[in-house]
Design a protein that fits this description.
8% of the residues lie in helices and 27% in strands. It is mainly beta.
């Protein structure tokens, strides 16, 4: 049997890549294939995120042993885990973090179990479009406002926590809920 896996991006809508892989392919082999096919460079502890049908993260598979793992979290490493351990059925969703600082992801979906066909090595069978860029261009630093000296603009990317749980942005906070009493 061979898995037919679709790799796509929400960032670059014209990009799609089809990968054919054996169930015994490791996630590390898949990582290496994607990095090479998209011409990306190693930037940190890349991850595969095993998701449910609504793309909510259920498990994480790390490239390297992370410095800290929650007590209730199983530790899975790419070179020790095979696709067949997490590809349960057609339609399985997996996200792949290819740029760890900005948490850019590619989305993977198992679209077909091809019976009677065997592949020795995972490979890209078809590709359309250009992969999303790995690193954003460096932008000019923001210019402080000149009209209102007490107005401060913040960049949510600098203040936002990048936990994989439910994320929120700073503008969703209720400022009145954080009162400071002077003594």
């Amino acid at each position: 049997m061979t898995y037919r896996i679709l790799v796509f991006s929400e960032e670059e809508e014209n990009f799609v890549m089809e990968v054919m892989a054996s169930p015994s392919t490791t996630f590390h082999e898949m990582h290496t294939l994607i990095m090479k096919a998209c011409e990306y460079t190693e930037t940190g502890n890349h991850q595969f995120l095993i998701c449910n049908e609504a793309w909510k993260v259920k498990e994480k598979i790390y490239l390297h042993n992370p410095q800290s793992v929650g007590l209730d979290e199983d530790l899975y490493l790419m070179d020790e885990v095979r696709l067949e351990e997490f590809f349960e059925e057609e339609g399985q969703h997996i996200a792949y973090i290819y740029e760890t600082n900005s948490r850019k992801t590619l989305l993977l979906e198992l679209v077909e179990n091809v019976f009677g066909k065997k592949t020795d090595e995972a490979h890209v069978s078809r590709r359309k479009g250009t992969a999303p860029v790995q690193f954003d261009e460096i932008e000019e630093p923001p210019v402080p406002p000149t009209t209102t000296p007490n107005t401060a603009e913040t960049d949510n990317e600098d203040t936002e926590d990048t936990d994989d749980g439910d994320l929120f942005s700073a503008d969703e906070l209720d400022a009145e809920g954080f009162e400071v009493n002077e003594m």
